[in-house]
Design goal:
Layout: H1 3-25, E1 35-42, E2 58-66, E3 73-75, E4 82-85, E5 89-94, E6 97-101, E7 107-108, E8 114-115, E9 121-127, E10 133-139, E11 154-162, E12 182-189, E13 195-206, E14 209-216, E15 219-220, E16 226-230, E17 236-238, E18 242-246, E19 255-260, E20 265-267, E21 272-278, E22 286-291, E23 296-301, E24 306-312, E25 314-316, E26 324-327, E27 330-332, E28 341-343, E29 352-355, E30 357-359, H2 365-397
Length: 400
């Protein structure tokens, strides 16, 4: 009698409903991947094969396979929220054991590690002190300590001195604007990160000849005038670079500064400053984190400086469906999945990183509701087979 055949259909439909129910329950779970129940028939065979009039004995769920299609990417206000656009998984350090996930909801723990809600640490390729990405891997940790200051060692001046200006014969006096033609200022920094007002004065002494003076906090540090000569085409002929050494006030180390005037010109137009740059900076605190689409992690500081911390590692697998589910939208590698291939985002099969965004579940609710109706009808049909078989059995029993 077909009781057991119909019972296998009931069990299969029931398991399919459980799969659908799990998909529907996780329709809003970040990084969730829907599953589908896959069925195969049960057929009695012998060593000599299948007879021509053999009848199947039911159905079973042969596999519940996950579908690793791309979910919708939704933008957030947290730049530590990450989404992978394309293939691959985030690599998570779970107390020394790697787990893999598509859920990029990350925050920072008390030690500065970037972690998810399960305290699993996001793994990256580390950077060396120069900001070059290396092959070494480890958890991403944000350093909240102040960045060390850097003393100014070079100043680049790009200015135009007015060729039509009249020469000045009076002795230079920074407090008397009538003893120089033009001036410009910028802020420089000592080894302690303290700012100093640095001023350049320009005094025309003859045609195509100027004297420049450098003052720091009102004190002459250039040793008097530095003569600068220009060709009749307006470009500088001599007088650059200028090397200046002095000891700033406040206990900082002595400074040696190279002043580059090679871009300074003398044309027949009013004095103008086109560029005034220096390479020093004050101390700064961490103000934010930027993550590029290739996963490069850069920390920003309040002094305008930045530092490369590393690059997000992305793992790909030859057989994603061979991964073992761990719960919490994470997976572990298995023999069937193959070993993880770790690489930078955007290389090989690995997708790109979207910062300030999360990948939503790939569950299509409309499709799941239709599948639910189908599974329900299959369950009812198998139940009807049992009812019919019961009626036939009762009829046979009632034969007298």
């Amino acid at each position: 009698m077909p009781f057991r055949t119909a019972l296998s259909g009931l069990n299969a439909s029931s398991q399919e409903l459980r799969v659908i129910g799990n998909n529907v329950a996780n329709a809003s779970t970040v990084g969730f991947k829907e599953s589908r129940a896959e069925f195969s028939d049960i057929f009695a065979t012998s060593n000599l094969g299948v007879t021509a009039n053999a009848i199947g004995t039911g159905v079973r769920v042969s596999s519940v396979s996950q579908q690793f299609t791309q979910g919708n990417i939704e933008f957030t206000d947290n730049n530590l929220d990450l989404a992978i656009s394309g293939q691959g998984f985030f690599v998570l350090d779970d107390n020394g054991i790697n787990a893999y996930s598509r859920a990029g909801q990350f925050g920072v723990d008390r030690d500065g590690n970037v972690v998810n809600s399960q305290q699993q640490k996001l793994v990256m390729f580390k950077a060396d002190p120069s900001g070059n990405i290396t092959g070494a891997r480890g958890p991403l940790q944000l350093d909240r300590s102040d960045i060390a200051p850097q003393a100014t060692a070079r100043i680049d001046v790009n200015a135009n001195l007015d060729a039509s200006a009249a020469p000045i014969t009076a002795a230079f006096d920074p407090s008397d604007a009538g003893t120089y033609n033009s001036s410009t200022s910028l802020t420089t920094y000592d080894s302690l990160g303290s700012p100093h007002l640095t001023t350049f004065y320009y005094q025309k002494t003859a045609a195509n000849t100027w004297d420049t003076y450098m003052y720091v906090d009102g004190t002459d540090v250039g040793g008097g005038a530095n003569a600068v000569d220009f060709l009749d085409t307006g470009v500088i002929n001599s007088g650059s670079p200028v090397n200046v050494s002095f000891t700033p006030a406040g206990g900082a180390a002595p400074m040696s500064v190279t002043v580059n005037l090679s871009d300074t010109t003398q044309y027949g137009s009013p004095f103008s400053v086109n560029g005034l740059d220096q390479d020093g900076f004050a101390t700064g605190r961490l103000s934010g984190i930027d993550i590029s689409d290739t996963g490069v992690i850069t920390s920003r500081f309040t002094n305008g400086q930045s530092r490369t911390l590393g690059q997000v590692a992305v793992a790909t697998f030859n057989n994603e469906q061979g991964l073992r589910q761990l719960g919490e939208t994470s997976w572990a590698e298995t023999y069937d999945s193959g070993a993880p291939l770790l690489g930078a985002p955007g290389t090989g099969a690995a997708g790109l990183i979207q910062s300030g965004a999360l990948e939503g579940s790939n569950v299509d609710l409309t499709e799941e509701l239709v599948n639910m109706i189908t599974a329900q009808r299959n369950f009812q049909a198998n139940a009807q087979v049992i009812t019919t078989a019961d009626t036939v059995t009762q009829t046979i029993i009632n034969i007298r």
